[in-house]
Design brief:
73% of the residues lie in helices and 0% in strands.
């Protein structure tokens, strides 16, 4: 029984690792790029993608925003995600978009 539970945990960790890597690649980011935005080392991103480490929920939220993937993409469908968590992710996405707009306006000298 213990062995099966351990195996299930390992499979979920491997699935999360694959999803993090896939999301990063689809967003056309290198490990170094993603690490820079998250203020982490590229070794940490590598550890997440190889299943050697699990990112904290807050980091996973940031990865979600950066890669334009819903948080549910990374989390097993059977895990209940609180509505306020989804709302927080949407707010972070909007904040990121507003920051990008502000930077573009500053480049054009409009701000």
């Amino acid at each position: 029984m213990q062995k099966q539970s351990s195996q299930q945990t390992m499979n979920k960790l491997e699935q999360l690792a694959q999803k993090i890597r896939q999301a990063r690649v689809e967003a056309a980011l290198s490990q170094k790029d993603l690490a820079g935005v998250l203020k982490l080392s590229d070794r940490t991103i590598s550890a997440y993608e190889q299943g050697r480490a699990t990112p904290p929920l807050e980091t996973l939220q940031h990865i979600s925003v950066i890669t334009h993937k819903p948080i549910n993409y990374f989390v097993d469908e059977t895990v209940a995600i609180r509505t306020d968590l989804d709302l927080a992710v949407k707010i972070k996405q909007i904040e990121l978009e507003l920051l990008q707009i502000k930077q573009a306006l500053q480049k054009q000298g409009l701000l």
